[in-house]
Here is the input.
Amino acid sequence: MVIIIKHLPHSPTKSKWSFPDDFKFGVATAAYQIEGGWNADGKGVNVWDHLTHTNPNFTIDNSNGDIACDSYHKWQEDVQMLKNLGVDFYRFSLSWTRILPQGFSSEINTAGVQYYSNLIDELIANGIEPCVTLFHWDSPQMFSSFGGYYNPIFVDLFANYARIAFKLFGDRVKTWITFNEPKVVCQDYNEFVGLINEVYPNGVIEYLCTHNLLKAHAEAYHIYNNEFRAKQNGKIGITLNFEWSEPASTKPEDLEAAEQRRQFEFGLFANPVVYGNYPKIVIERVAHKSKQEGFPDSRLPKFTQAEQLKIKGTYDFIGLNHYNSWLVKASPEQPIGEPSYVKDVGTERFVDLSWEDTEWNGKIAPFGLRNSLQWIKTRYKNPLILITENGYPDKTGTLKDDRRISFLQKYLNATLQAIHQDQVNVKAYTVWTLMDNFEWAQGFTIKFGLYHVDFTNDERTRTAKKSVEYYGSVIKDRVV
Ligand code: PNW
Here is the structure.
């Protein structure tokens, strides 16, 4: 059964508001999705190289990121595309094994360092600020031999890598993001949790991964704070994905169910970063369920007092990736049996059929972005928020991408409402993504790009879609 309820109306397409002068616009990419050059000039193997090489059926078109958009060679073209768009900043990620081939800080690959150094210089020469993500899913393959994210040593390995990145690039990079979407890495995709690490989601390892990534984030934050901030004067934060959970009705149990989901999905990461510990409801539910399942202690690891103090407040901003929304209602508890994160989250979610479809998974519901921003504002002491991803997928890659334009316009409008009506402290918007690229398990079949890339051509020719003109005009005129 589908319950259909009217919620906040979709934003009107035109707005009377404009973006404030200090609001910045950008586009985002990630190393494995665009660079190619998978073994060029001393780069080491990462989990995505390994996974796609050993398991080619993993992607629906049997593809991999060996060449992708070939940005390892075509970075100057990329910067020209950015310049043509007129963006204020470019969010890209560093490939850990391009800089540290084995993942360990004992060996630095100078060619990899040079690549990023050139890119950063070229961006700055063109008036574009670099915004760097340290970790966008391409963990060193070497780490899988000792459990990767599940081994607490990951914390130190990441911290050492972060220090090297700050040292090498922090003179020019003023915005750092430690992790992109730790929830996707730890909870969402069986491909990450299962195939990459050869362990399977069981209600324990999801939290172990979460625990280690949060500690690694905090460690990197403190390294930046103690060793670099005074000289480099930048900002550092974390990017979390948030699919908005809208209560399916005004019944108290549905309001509660939606809040429970937000806490398990976003609060699981944001609460420790802001307040030092997991949300109360997460601590209580997992403890309760663990007990019922016969565990002597909660499956959710505990932060010591010292760890809580260390993790608390480790952000200059919260990065928000937002794509999608759901209706959520209370549902009967599943019988005790195999423990799982999904059962811990509980509740039931479905989509409102009146919401417009994208061409992949996801609906168009811009009020979800506005509500997410407002929720983050009230729950987390009105933090500085940067929207680090939002974008529209299609399957055709058409140059006449009016549907992408309409999507962007709606979500930019929702952002304007958040700024002007809700006084949310949001200071940046980032389109995912600069150009069509390797969309993980979907290979090259799903396209989010503002620029089209011809993957049949060795030149990987890039062509501006209609949305380039649109987004360019938003950036220039500061209205949608
Ligand atoms: C993001 N969700 O992943 C990633 O950061 C990008 O690398 C990716 O290409 C992009 O979205 C498009 O898929 C997401 O469940 C994964 O809401 C999951 C969700 C959202 C974004």
User: Anything to note?
Assistant: The CA atoms of residues 105 and 164 lie 8 Å apart. The two ends are 37 Å apart (CA to CA). The chain has one domain: 2-477.
